[in-house]
Amino acid sequence: MRDIPVNLGGYKLTVVEPPMPKMREDSNGAQVPVTDRDGATQFTVSLFAKLRVKAGERAPKGEEIKVTLGTDPGPDFGEDARVELIDARVSPYQVESAGRVNSGLAWRAMGLKHAPTPAPRGDK
């Protein structure tokens, strides 16, 4: 299965590394931008995902995820920005190399948007 739609509405997503063009090494060892089938440059962003909890509850440990973006999100997504993914999808993968098996989840989205600012909590 590939490109499984994902609902991350119950998570806070915070930018850890701002979006930048996704790069790969070509056969000559030079860094070149990764493009999709249509020639559009792909971007990558690192996010910290943490479960949203109700007041007084403790959130379990979060996780850093690296997401490939299908469009340029623009310059307004610096470190610590709260964001939402547009059309988030995930694909499991498994790669064998030199007798080792590496597996995980490949995250993709069409883009980023700023998350709405949460209402302030009143002290009781």
Average of per-residue pLDDT values? 92
Content-based structural category: mainly beta
Number of beta strands: 10
| Unreliable residue stretches | none
Helix content: under 10%
Number of helices: 0
Q: How far apart lie the N and C ends?
A: 48 Å
What is the C-alpha radius of gyration, as a whole number of Å? 17 Å
Write a concise keyword list for the protein shown above.
about 120 residues, mainly beta, eight-stranded mixed beta sheet, 10 strands, globular
SSE blueprint:
Layout: E1 4-5, E2 11-21, E3 23-25, E4 31-33, E5 43-51, E6 63-69, E7 82-86, E8 89-97, E9 100-109, E10 111-114
Parallel strand pairs: 6-9
Antiparallel strand pairs: 1-8, 2-5, 2-7, 3-4, 5-6, 7-10, 8-9
Description:
The chain is mostly beta strands. It is 0% helix and 51% strand. It has no helices and ten strands. The chain has strands spanning 4-5, 11-21, 23-25, 31-33, 43-51, 63-69, 82-86, 89-97, 100-109, 111-114. The strands form two sheets. The chain has an eight-stranded mixed β-sheet, with no helix packed on it. Strands 3-4 form a two-stranded antiparallel sheet. Strand 3 and strand 4 (31-33) form a beta hairpin. The protein is globular. The termini are far apart. The relative contact order is 0.25.
